[in-house]
Structure formats: C-alpha cells, structure tokens
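Fig. S4 source data, part A: sequence.
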Amino acid sequence: MQNPSVVAPGRAPVAALAALALSVFALCSAEFALVGLLLDVSRDLRVSVADAGQLLSAYAVTVAVGGPAVTALTTRVGPKRLALGLLAVFAAANVLGALAPSFPLLLAARTLGALTHSTFAAICVVMAVRLSPPGRRASAIAWVSGGLGLATVLGGPIGTANGQQWGWRATFWCVTGAAVVGFLAVLALVPGSVTRETGVSARGEAGALKRPGVLCALTVTAVSQAGWFLLYAFVAPLLREASGFGPAATTVLLFLFGLGGFAGNAAGGRLADRGLRGTLIAMLTLLAAALALTGAVAHVRPAVPVALVLIGFASGALVPPLQAWVLGAAGGGSALAVAANTSAFNLGNAAGSWGGSRLLDAGVDIGALGWAGAAVVAGAAVVTAVALRRRAGAAGGRVEAEVPR
C-alpha cells in the first residue's frame, strides 16, 4: 500500500513546503536577531559587551552539540507533532527572553530556544522530502533551507531595526510572534499523515551516522563551510579596511551577499535534482574560485562586490545538495543525520572564524584569507569528487539526489 504522505508524481505540495519554510525562517531568525543589539543588551543588563556576546556563541554551541542529542531522544515522535511541540517550546523560550530580568536568565532562555533549532530544521527537511514527488526532493530541501537563507538576509536587519526602535526586548516579542504564525501554518497546511521511516529508533539512527558515506558528507559540509567562513567572519573589516568601503556601502554589500545566497539556494535545489555529483563539484569549484578572486582583488574596489555575490551564491547553492547527500547516504529518513549535518555547518563556522583569527594574529594580510579559504574549499571539492565517483561506480552509474522513502 502506498504511504498516504506520498504525493502524486510531479505535484509539489507548495502550501505545506511554504509553511515549513516560514517556520524555519521564524526559528532561525532568532540566531541572527541580536547581532546588532549586543551593546543595548549589555547596557540594559549591566554586563560587558564580551559577556553579551555569549548570547550568540552559546546559541551556536548549543545548536551544534545539543541538537543531535534532542533529535536522538525524539525519534519516536511523529514529525508534525514534534515540529509543533518544538515551535511551542521555542515560542515559550522567547517569551522568557523578552521578560528576563537578568543576564543569566536571558542566557538560559536563549539556550532553551537553541535546543529546538537543529531538531526542528532536521524534521522539516525530513517532512519536505516525504511530501515531495520523486525527482524533486532536493528542491523540497531548498524550500526548507530557503527559510534559513531568508533568516540570514533579513533576520539580523529586522531584529536590529526593531530593537533600535522599541528596545531589544521587542525583538524577542517579534520572534515569538513569528513562531506563533509558523505554528499555525504548520498546523493548518502540513498533512498529519506525513510519517517517518517505519521502525526508526534512536539506535538505528545513531548507527546511520557510522556509515562511511554519511561521515564523508558530514566532513565535506564542515570543511567547505569552514573554508568560506574563514573569510566571511572577517568580511566587514575586509570591506572597510582593505577595499575602502564606508559603513553604509558595507551594509548594502552584506545584504547583496545574502541575496546571492538565497538565489543560490533555490538554484542548488533544482540543479541537485538533475545531478547531485555535478552540482556539488561545480558549486565547490565556484566557491573556491570566488574566494581566490576575493583574495586577488581585495584592494580593487569595483571587483570586490562581484566576488562577494559569487561567494554568497555558491555557498547558498551547496546547502540543498549537501543535505540531500547526507540524507541519502543515511538511508533517506534519518532526522538525526540531518541534525548532525546542521551541527557540521555550525562547527564549520566556528572552525573558520577561529582559523581566520589565528591567521590575522600571525600577521597575514586580511585579503589573504580569501586564498586560504579557497585552498580549504578546493580540498573539499577533491574529496567530494573522489567519494561520489566511488559511490557512482558502486551504484553502476549516476549519483542522484534521490532519497529513498
């Protein structure tokens, strides 16, 4: 008997995918919403700016470390029920953040919200794949990661604008409202019949993480992310100091970078549906080339925006095929594998920013971070080409983004 969550071939459940994307946007915006408000928080709660920065770093660490643990503990919960429960917890965490009278309580509220992040994103990916017809599943993943892309582009600016206008607590109330809207959208538009793979257990999902293909995909995610984040973590100083852009122009360029990532995400999903291996190698190559271009033209003002948009496009285009690769390698229904890949993205961010800071401390010119990042991403491209060629040979042909049900 056909699974009731399977849609007719060629039909995309647009309303359901849009609801998932909206919810991911609401949840992921919380990660970026306080970026421009740390000074306000530090003044109001009487802590240093460095201490206030823990609201960002602790969030990222919690996502990376706590996410897979929460996912493993919730393997027996139905996808829609789990998504709604996580959204409810997330909304409650932001209410606590808005009302927090002290910094420790605010940090605790942020940590509670962060615990929902990875598992929610993972279960949304699994639901999107289960709802989509064969041949369109990387595009379905792109819907979900598109919500993250929008959060990257809009979450920080919107959160900063709201906080500057009405105080930083208003940002938490806005995120809470967005979570409630996402909750209602998922409740109304996502079919309750969507299911996980039958017989899923925490032990089984953990076992999938030991597969060589999954480990390889996770490694490529972390390394490629570290490569471009090695530069991006310091892109504002690069634009200001090396390229000579002013504050307003820097803000515009960062917005263009985000738009490039959003466009790349949509393109990456479509391309991965046609060929996973070709898309991954092509986008890794483009990303390495764009990083190298940035290193070469860091002091040439007219060329820098082009390189920056290319980095955004290529890095965004990698998200859907990387998620499709790890999900397919895990057997098609492992939310834990997707959560682990989310952790790999966050660990890559941390490794890249740490590596970039060490190079700068050693006296390396800030423009040279582009060359260093290009070398790291090029290494990831070589590993990908070798690994997927072997997989294609074992499968007797082409490697697809197809994810078994």
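Fig. S4 source data, part B ends here. The domain at 202-395 is CATH 1.20.1250.20 (Growth Hormone; Chain: A;).
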